[in-house]
Amino acid sequence: MPTMDRHVKADVLLLVVTLLAAAGWVFSKEALLGMPPLLFLGLRFLLAGVVLVAFGWAALRALPRRTLLEAFAVGVLFSGAMMCWIMGLFFATHVGEGAFITSLGIVLVPVIARWVYGDTPPTSTWVALPVAVAGFGLLSLNQGFRIELGQAFFLAAAVMFAFLFNINSRVAARVPAVPLTAIQLLVVGVVALLVSAFVETWPAEVPLAVVGWLLASALLATTLRFFIQVYAQGLTTPSHAAVIMMLEPIWTALLAAVWFSEVMSWAQFGGCLLIFLALVINRWSWVRKLIKSRLLRRA
């Protein structure tokens, strides 16, 4: 395959990934109309995990016990992050805003890396951080400075996702992607269902439409998204993929505007814009390389 075709294919597939991820917010919000949030999360991830186990069974069986335990431990952290996320979505008054708050985890990744591993963050991180804080501050300006419950859960999820990315990147360097993800999804599913059994009342019946949203969330927004993402990342560099993946909150906000008729106030729009600007600043070196590579190909 010619180099240009390879890059174009990667870009298109990664755009599809971001759209599936954004659609997952809509699928999940619709499913929450008929299911308790933790029950939904558990079923979604358990189903997706079972599908991935079927595809990665041979590689999964070959993993040593220590690696399995590491993947399980990361899965527990992943469970906490996803439970915060789903509770944020359950209480959210604005889905698009929630997507931008959750994306703050990207800005926090190098900060957490410095705190936990002693890594030295690039200068862009310290520039992006106050911009991100200002953006979140604008989103909290609702009848004075007030953080809504959904916003607090999304922010907690962002912090946990930052921890998760740092730890998972070190485990993923030694473990194939499919079995690692399968274990983590299964752990999230089991943990969420266990917590749900203690704190939620399970419905006697679930409407067929809600079952459809659950299946869409598990099979399209989770399983299919993962397979496309892994394949697309194999066609390009991690930095290139990371830049395109920043589009997820934008697609989520647009889909929420179309599907739920969400409208942003000027404060919300300004806050989301600042958060996205923080994402661009945080990954500016990668964005600059992407722009240069595109200009060189056109020359």
TrEMBL record:
GO cellular component: plasma membrane
Keyword DNA damage in annotation: no
Assigned keywords, A-Z: Cell membrane, Membrane, Transmembrane, Transmembrane helix
Membrane topology per record: Multi-pass membrane protein
Pfam families (UniProt xref): EamA
InterPro entries hit by this protein: Diverse_Substrate_Transporter, EamA_dom, EmrE-like
Residue stretches spanning the membrane: 38-60, 72-92, 98-117, 124-141, 147-165, 177-198, 210-228, 240-260, 266-287
Domain called EamA: residue spans: 9-140, 150-281
Compartment(s) of residence: Cell membrane
Main location: membrane
The name this protein goes by in its record: EamA family transporter
Classification of source organism: Bacteria, Pseudomonadati, Pseudomonadota, Gammaproteobacteria, Chromatiales
